[in-house]
Every structure is written in structure tokens, then in C-alpha cells.
Amino acid sequence: MLDKMIYLDNSASTRLDEKVLDAMKPYYFDTYAVATSEFGYSMGIDAKEGLEEARKIIASSIGATAEEIVFTSGETESSNMAIKGVVAALKKKKGEHIIVSKLEDFAVLNTAKNLEKQGYSVDYISVDAEGIVDLEELKSKIREDTVLVSIQHANQEIGTLQDLDAIAKICKEKDVLFHTDATHSYVRVAIDVSKTPVDLISMSAHTIHGPRGVGALYVRKGTPLIKWMDGGYQETDRRAGLENIPGAVGFAKAVELVTEKETKFLESLRDYTIERVFEEIPHVTLNGSKTQRTPQNANITFHYVEGESMTLHLDMRGFAVSTGSACFSRSLEASHVILGIGGDHERAHGSIRFTFGRYNSMDDVDAVVDAIKEIVSQLRAISPLYNK
Amino acid sequence: MKFPYTEKVLEHFKNPRNVGKLENPDGKGLEGSPACGDMVAVYLQVNPDTQIIEDIKFESYGCASNIATASIITELAKGKTIEEAKKISWQEATEELGGLPPVKAHCSVLAVEGLRAAIRDYEEKHGLVSEQEPTTVDVIRSRLKHVMNPMAGLDIIRTELVTKMEINDGVVRVLIDLPSNHQFAANIKEEVTEKLESLWDVNEVNVVFTE
């Protein structure tokens, strides 16, 4: 057992950077007023300045303008707001058909399923064995009454990156709005909305060492969007509820702290993990694309062993990772992502996701690979599936 | 540790007892499949004079709950007669472990089914089935409920993969709604055959795939 836990589940959430906390603190203890208009009291005006400065930073990170950013509580709210807002706005004008990919996060997938129950028509686009969306299928599924295409930029489990430019181009040509959930790629893989005609982008702070419970939705100017949560008139009447100003400030600080050098370092951790596992452990499969992949994600199936057993053994030795095994999930369903890329249940059950963050090191990779080598060998020794 | 498992479950998970395979076992049971996420094999060595289980081993492809239950089951069964071992219930195993999370019931119940399947196999091979009931379609259906449909993670009966079952003069015929070149066809055929050929009045098992 290690002295401290080695956390390798950074796509689930990350440790807050202390510099982020420092940036947020004044907005909890000094400038804690709500954002008021310019004729309000000074503390409120200062708070609003902090919020607007944060908005500018988020906007500039994707080449947008400040007024195109709406602060939210994170990925789930952003994606709900985008999808439900657009379908409500265009239902009577254009139609009730939307398209999503089969690999989406539940924030998009379950929103789509809910709309389906309400009578909307939904198409779920297939992906290839690496998790890349079938563009021909997408083209063929877009109809006269299609109001929105929602396809993620990066996959939450296998890290596969979609070709946003190609998807956005198809949507533009067919005059359909395009939303992308970029939670797992944001600021690690560049998106420039001045070049890529994407209309809505979901972002979240907690995947980049920012605070949990804050995110943003980019809404391209002129995009029809009906407010889906009623209340006050905050966020230029697009999102009701008092703004989480410390959260927004922390989110912006987290964005500023991400560097290209760090992203390259995460890539090296990812590649080293994959390299060592493939060299030293037999019967393994890489899930997702070898080349079109987020810098922080390595997802590998260890055949003949079950994922929950592996994660539990790893935890006992001081490592936190996640798995696509049904036994690991509350729903007792195997990963829809691994099944979606054509993997069978056994492949999903034996998959382990390693996701790296700022506080990981090469030593962490060495330690976890050493541990998993032993664990896999131990579990294979008792597996009726493994040919000893 | 804050896992939803008791210390005893974790202890059996970390250090499972009676792990492994017995060469030429007197009885063997295999339950579950990789598709449903858990699979357990139980091997028995039984003293023919006393009917006492002298050795028992298990293999598991499963989660902590599955491994721990299989481990405790082998401890409970070792030294018991096969009649006594038959009575070991899932509840008894769970109590011995200090409880299991309710959602994990299906993962652990397989271990009990594995033991029962191994005992049944032993009894059938040794002509010990007291009331030799003739094999009917219902018996076949009940056996095939233990063969998994790897595409669905549920058994081939529940997922309606079996379209017809019949028995005539000791020959069983099972129709499976899959092409014979399907990736799982050979595996399903093998499991169906294994589940039915040990029945006392079955001489031949024919698994037929739709083309």
C-alpha cells in the first residue's frame, strides 16, 4: 500500500489547483455580493467585474466573444440547456428531429432519450471500431425537419476525438445547428469557433483542475435557444439563478493554468502507459483510436479478467482508476461506449480507464503498471476463461 | 475502507480459499458467462463410499462478490456429504460473509449454482439421481436457462434465442435463432451440449442453427 492514493481517474474529476482556490477566495470572503448593475453598490459591481473578466477568458479560449458564453453548473446542465433550448426554439419552425452519436455522455444520451419519450424523433449515429462517427451516415440521416446534431468532441471513456471541422461543415451545409460536448477535450485540444462553425459547446471546469459545479455553454450569436429553467434574468436572460461567481472565476483561472507543455506531458504519460502495458502484459486491447485521442486518456481491456475485481485490487494497493464493467456501475450495465464500438460484454467488463492530470508523474505510471501486471496475472490464474 | 463490502468479503476476495482446478474431477459445474459479467466453475472430488466432498476447488471470472461467495461456498461444502452440500443456500453463504450489497445478489448466486451444478453432474455421472425423471421439454428449458446469450448478457431462453426444443427416443434437438457462422455459434453449441448430454436418458444432442 502506498503512502498516498495515486489518482488516475482525472476524467471523472480532478484535484483543484491551489492557485484556482486562491483566485476564488476573495469572491467568497470579500467580494461576495451578487453581480449588480452599474448603479448598484460597489461590492456587487466588483463581483460583476470578476464574473465578466472570467467570461472573457473562457470566450477567448475558444475564439468566441464574451456575450456568447453562458455560465452553468457544468457539463450536464450545458448539454441539457443546448439540446432542450434548441428543440424548444425550433419545434414549430422547423421540426422535431435530432441526431446524436451512440457514444455520448449520459448528459446528452439521456436528454435525447427523454425527448424521444416526449415524441421527438431521435437518430443515434453509429461509430467505427475506434469510436469515430460515421460521417456518411450522419449526412444521410439529416432531414428537412432536423433541428440539431449533437456529437461530442472527445469521448469520456475511450478518449476518441471526433473531426469537429468535418461534422460542423456537414451541419452548416445542411443548415442544421451543431452542438458538441467538449468536456473531455476543452483547452487540451484546440477549438476555434471563428474557424469551425459549431453553434453550441458544453464545457466544464472540473476536468481541468477547476472547481466542481461550474461550467459554461458557448452559444453562437443568433442561435435560437429558449431558456429551459425559469427564474430570474441572469446571464442575459438565458440562465435563471444567481451566478456562481467564485466558481466562474475559478474556472477562468483553471483555463489560464493549462499550458501546451502540460498537455504534451499528459500525452507522454498516456503513451508510456500504453507502451508498457502492451509490451509487458499479454492479451490486451486498446479501446479507442490510436491517433485521434485525448492527451490524458488510456483505456485498455485486460482479457479474461473482470474490471471491478481489478479496480478493487488496485484500490487496495493505492490506485484509483475506473472500468466499464457492469459490476462497477450502479445500473449494472456494461459500458455503452465499449459495446458501441463493437466490443462484446467481455471486452467491456475487462476494460480499465487510466486518465491523467497535472499531479501525476511517470513514477505513477510505473507504479500502476507494475501493480496491474501482478493483479492481472493473479486474476487470470483463477479465471475459468484463461487458458493456463 | 469504505467499500459496500464487509471485511470478511474483502478478506475472501483478497485471499480466496480453494482456488484452482481439479484434474479429472468427480463432478464439475460451470455457471454464468463472460457476457453477463460473471462466471464460476466448481470442481468436486467425492469419496464414493462416504459421499463426502473431500476436495473442492473453484475458478472465477467475476467481481469481488462473486469471488468471495465462491470462496466461502467451497469452505462450507468441504467435508460435507453431497446431500448436506446440496442444502447450502445463497442466504447461508451471504450470512457467513456478513452480508452482501443487494445489487450484487446475482453475482454471488452464481457460486451457489456452480456448486449445485457440480453436485448434479456428479450424481448424474454416478447414477445417483434418485428419481430418474424422463427428460421433457421443460427439463431442457430449465437446463438451457443456464446458457448465456453473449450478445445480451442474459440466458438463451429469456432472450428467445431458442426457437424450438424437442426430444425423441433420447435424441434432443435444439433450434437456435442464429446463423451457424455467427461468432458465438460454436460457443453456444458447446454450452448447450454440455448442459444436456449428461441427462440420464439423453443419447444425442443436436444443435441446429438457422441459415
UniProtKB/TrEMBL annotation, chain A:
Swiss-Prot/TrEMBL cofactor(s): pyridoxal 5'-phosphate
Domain Aminotransferase class V: residue ranges: 6-368
Keyword Iron-sulfur belongs to the record: yes
UniProt key word Iron: yes
Gene Ontology molecular functions: iron-sulfur cluster binding; metal ion binding; transferase activity
Annotated InterPro entries: Aminotrans_V_dom, Cysteine_dSase, PyrdxlP-dep_Trfase, PyrdxlP-dep_Trfase_major, PyrdxlP-dep_Trfase_small
Signal sequence bounds: none
Pfam families: Aminotran_5 (PF00266)
Organism superkingdom: Archaea
Keywords assigned by UniProt, alphabetized: Iron, Iron-sulfur, Metal-binding, Pyridoxal phosphate, Transferase
PANTHER family (UniProt xref): CYSTEINE DESULFURASE, CYSTEINE DESULFURYLASE FAMILY MEMBER
Family, similarity comment: Belongs to the class-V pyridoxal-phosphate-dependent aminotransferase family. NifS/IscS subfamily.
Protein name, entry field: Cysteine desulfurase family protein
Taxon lineage: Archaea, Methanobacteriati, Methanobacteriota, Stenosarchaea group, Methanomicrobia
TrEMBL record, chain B:
SUPFAM superfamilies: Fe-S cluster assembly (FSCA) domain-like, SufE/NifU
Residue stretches in coiled coil: none
MIP18 family-like domain residues: 139-207
GO molecular function list: iron ion binding; iron-sulfur cluster binding
GO terms classed as biological process: iron-sulfur cluster assembly
Occurrences of domain NIF system FeS cluster assembly NifU N-terminal (ranges): 5-126
PANTHER family recorded: IRON-SULFUR CLUSTER ASSEMBLY ENZYME NIFU HOMOLOG
Protein name: Iron-sulfur cluster assembly scaffold protein
